[in-house]
Write a structure and sequence with these properties.
The protein has 109 residues and is an alpha+beta fold. It has helices at residues 7-16, 50-67, 89-108; strands spanning 18-21, 25-31, 38-43, 74-80. It has one domain (7-108): Ribosomal Protein S5, domain 2 (2-Layer Sandwich), CATH 3.30.230.10. It contains three helices and four strands, in the order αβββαβα. The protein has a four-stranded mixed beta sheet, with helices on both faces. The radius of gyration is 13 Å and the shape is globular. The chain starts with 6 loop residues before the first helix and ends with a helix.
């Protein structure tokens, strides 16, 4: 998987990207000049201690890797909101699918 790691990459996407939100997540998307996609996961310290945040990020990475059709030529940041760390894996998967579909529908309009 292609991951965003640098703070300036995250900040650029926050400023320039399109935003789509659900109850537990916010997705920022910006077009890229490169052929593949890159994705970053942002989980605030408000959601819990390091083990809770790391578990959530591992789950999100696995869901995106296995179940989501991510478009090339785009960069994404998935921001976790309050309550997302308490969701089970199945609910997380549904929520992530829902937010990516919501973005696709927004782009079609």
């Amino acid at each position: 998987m292609h991951r965003l790691k640098k703070n300036k990459e995250f900040n650029y996407i926050y400023k320039k990207g399109d935003r789509v939100s659900t109850e537990h997540f916010t997705l920022f998307v910006v077009k890229s000049k490169y052929n593949n996609y890159r994705i970053g996961f942002s989980v605030s310290k408000k959601l819990g201690k390091a083990n809770v945040r790391n578990k959530l990020k591992r789950r999100l990475r696995e869901i995106v890797r296995r179940d989501i059709e991510v478009k090339n030529f785009h960069n994404y940041v998935l921001l976790a909101r309050d309550g997302s760390s308490k969701l089970d894996f199945k609910t997380l998967k549904e929520e992530i699918k829902k937010i990516f579909l919501k973005y696709e529908k927004k782009k079609m309009v």
